């Protein structure tokens, strides 16, 4: 009896192909047909899982967010709020091949959302969740003299900006990590 | 006698057309022909000024940087280091239509540089200059307990990230300005 098709796995396979294309050439000119070719499947198969490119991009974005969360949870163990925050943010930054691919898809999604506001809602929700998590950790650490919401917003923006700078080759990896650590020292006190 | 053609003015006119296209649909699918149509000139005229789209994008990026600098210098008057920094960074953020257009072109350029490293060098140089300016102001303000280079890198990344979040509709303008002001308070002390 043939193995039941794992639809989620299939979708992930296609989203991974989309990520490779995002890294190699950006996503604006990419069609479902290109994704089919990259994944080595038929265009019909892609269309079975995603009716439009927007649907596939939204799925890929969600997949990236889930993977980042899963990796940072796996790395966490019992940890201080500062360690939890640092662990999560290091999983976001494009510091290895996996994370570079993920950042390419996020950047392509952001650039697309900037000209197509209707697809920005998933992004907005995911960013709001991350900000809430960061603010909770700052509160738990009892960081004095800070507005946790503002500080969390600034920290997330800083990491988004570092990711953008790394991906567009403006900045070196070790400098980006050092800038993140300097910010964590400002917010949580010296390590 | 006909007025001598102002070549720089012509280039700016074309770069402005490119910026409008960037805001409306992104830049990846845009050709010199689209820019000619948007500017209301012939494709030949565009080709006279720019041989390639990369050349035009690089010019447009430089133009945006010059305009940001000119606006923040005009706004400066005699000012404290903190006011100089805030003035510059507010000129960078997409807080009105002009700056939104500029941010669209910068974001399109960044997304392009992420998949075409050879055009990233202007960007890298411009970012390095901005970081140096910010570090100089932090030093001039005598901010205690900070590494000015790291703090400047973090501040620029934070503003890049806020710009990205504003443009992709993740975040409200007043929250972005509040997050910037919270960071300035961390770096320079309470206002």
Short structural description:
With 191 residues, the first copy, chain A, is mainly α. The first copy, chain A, contains nine helices and no strands.
Q: How does this model look, in words?
A:
2 copies of one chain form a homodimer. Chain A is an all-alpha fold and about 190 residues long. Chain A has a single domain (about 5-190), classed as Tetracycline Repressor, domain 2. The first copy, chain A, contains 9 helices and no strands. In chain A, helix 2 (about 30-40) packs across helix 3. The radius of gyration of chain A is 18 Å and the shape is elongated. The termini of chain A are far apart. The model of chain A has no long low-confidence stretch (mean pLDDT about 90). At the A-B interface, helix 1, helix 6, helix 7, helix 8 and helix 9 of A face helix 1, helix 6, helix 7, helix 8 and helix 9 of B. Chains A, B: GO terms for molecular function: DNA-binding transcription factor activity; transcription cis-regulatory region binding. Chains A, B: InterPro entries: BetI_C (IPR039538), Homeodomain-like_sf (IPR009057), HTH-type_TetR-like_transc_reg (IPR050109), HTH_TetR (IPR001647), Tet_transcr_reg_TetR-rel_C_sf (IPR036271).
């Amino acid at each position: 009896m043939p193995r039941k098709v794992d639809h989620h796995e299939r979708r992930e396979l296609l989203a991974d192909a989309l990520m490779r294309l995002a890294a190699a050439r950006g996503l604006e000119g990419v069609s479902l047909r290109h994704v089919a070719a990259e994944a080595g499947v038929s265009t019909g198969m892609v269309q079975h899982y995603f009716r439009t490119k927007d649907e596939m991009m939204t799925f890929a974005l969600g997949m990236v967010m889930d993977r980042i969360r899963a990796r940072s949870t796996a790395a966490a163990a019992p940890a201080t709020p500062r360690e939890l925050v640092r662990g999560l943010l290091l999983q976001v930054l494009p510091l290895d091949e996996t994370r570079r691919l993920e950042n390419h898809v996020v950047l392509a999604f952001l650039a697309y959302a900037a000209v197509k506001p209707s697809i920005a809602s998933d992004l907005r929700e995911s960013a709001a969740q991350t900000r809430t998590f960061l603010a909770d950790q700052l509160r738990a650490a009892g960081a004095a003299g800070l507005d946790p919401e503002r500080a969390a917003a600034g920290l997330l923006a800083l990491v988004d900006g570092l990711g953008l700078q790394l991906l567009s080759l403006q900045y070196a990896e070790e400098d980006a990590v050092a800038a993140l650590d300097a910010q964590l020292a400002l917010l949580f006190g010296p390590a």
